Amino acid sequence: xxxxxxxxxxxxxxxxxxxxxxxxxxxxxxxxxxxxxxxxxxxxxxxxxxxxxxxxxxxxxxxxxxxxxxxxxxxxxxxxxxxxxxxxxxxxxxxxxxxxxxxxxxxxxxxxxxxxxxxxxxxxxxxxxxxxxxxxxxxxxxxxxxxxxxxxxxxxxxxxxxxxxxxxxxxxxxxxxxxxxxxxxxxxxxxxxxxxxxxxxxxxxxxxxxxxxxxxxxxxxxxxxxxxxxxxxxxxxxxxxxxxxxxxxxxxxxxxxxxxxxxxxxxxxxxxxxxxxxxxxxxxxxxxxxxxxxxxxxxxxxxxxxxxxxxxxxxxxxxxxxxxxxxxxxxxxxxxxxxxxxxxxxxxxxxxxxxxxxxxxxxxxxxxxxxxxxxxxxxxxxxxxxxxxxxxxxxxxxxxxxxxxxxxxxxxxxxxxxxxxxxxxxxxxxxxxxxxxxxxxxxxxxxxxxxxxxxxxxxxxxxxxxxxxxxxxxxxxxxxxxxxxxxxxxxxxxxxxxxxxxxxxxxxxxxxxxxxxxxxxxxxxxxxxxxxxxxxxxxxxxxxxxxxxxxxxxxxxxxxxxxxxxxxxxxxxxxxxxxxxxxxxxxxxxxxxxxxxxxxxxxxxxxxxxxxxxxxxxxxxxxxxxxxxxxxxxxxx
Length: 637
Fold this sequence. Notes:
This protein has 637 residues and is α+β, with helices and mostly antiparallel strands. Helices cover 40% and strands 14% of the residues.
């Protein structure tokens, strides 16, 4: 695992050292640089040594030094690829570095090399003979890649904060990204929070011609739900278990110990079971728990211990007071690069794990594959012929009840109506923290063109999927957006902030593509979310876990916002500050902050969304930070 940087047609080239140093947390084990001054190209990387500890240094070249690479990630089928490449006549300098496989695959196949890769990756290749840079981001967006075009050149890096160090890169905010963030709590799509910086989207590659300075970005893969296979539910359960075991076996490839985070939930438990079943030596597991009795509803330590006992793992527990989460709040904001209003406890899991290991497996991706969030249910069951006793009908009934309880200024009249009628389009049932009407009428202080509403944006994504099946189309939208730019972004930044490589075996593309062949009516069941997967891995789980409800880390934000964080809320969301900032209406304070603090309404999700943006704005805009802040949130008071 690494941090990577590339510059083309940007002078002076030695700036790359500054950008590379900003990524030291991603690779504390070493660094390297390469430059071709004649063609004004420079590459650099920071290395976290996982495979071929002695021989895997980068930048790395082919035999004659005409192709160079910097690479972040792991290719889990690299042993098989190396065998094929040796048979094709390639000579390897390293004993088993996966990086060198990428170089020779590129020599043989060019862009088509991407079809051969199984793993998580972001890389930059400089082809001196063709005078171009080529690179890609993995299919699901596990590894990040940002780029900018200062003076018509190209700068590309693992993290947004590195590109901010270049002269000519402004910190002008992309207002459309702010608008989408308010609804989603993350910035979706190819745009970043800054107008000058964009993302290489998941499953895309780029090609930059050094002579013409032309940049092309193209998709090379997308989920394919066509041609489902016909098997019984029992047969599918056997297929899932077999494919899952294979995926986990691939994703433990390493020259250093591999551990597993263990929440006590279905996903991480199944990974631990598969690793233990294959005889992984001295398997270490790490769990996070909470100390107060009132937190028992989201405390899974008891279940995690049963899993550890079942498989005899070397188990570690960290007991956390939720208020401890606030101690590192500013450091989290800095590490995330962009505004983010989601869960924070993973920060401590990764920090805990990094004290002993370099690699940790997590269960991210399982919910998207098996419909664990059930986002499609409300839409499906709102159709005229939906069964009245179905789970979806109950969801809609609950939504109507909620709509009747919430004040109009919170959810807006449009959203209120949507909750009480048949949805015209699936994306109208998508959960938004601020709906579009509320944002335009009561939150933002800037103008946006028609058609930029979040629901419209999601609908375009839905239509681009070209998937006729509603459940699969929801899966497509989630994988393109929330999975990549919320869950995987957080996983990457929080783990790499502590120099830990986080792996997600559920997103092994061979495994995922086979799961896409399961008819959605079997794979995603409204009354039994993830029931098929639970059936498949039942023998890997303690009996207690089979019946345990889905849980998650729920932040006590309502308590924080009225308690410890109240002075910060009052300061960062005050009318005078909002008026000076120019992004949000000053009336946000009276319409949202005052009723919440007075206990007249619970709008903690909305206030938390706004507060986390304001903390990001403080660090990246007002203070224009160029290195990790050393202050705490209390110091902002």
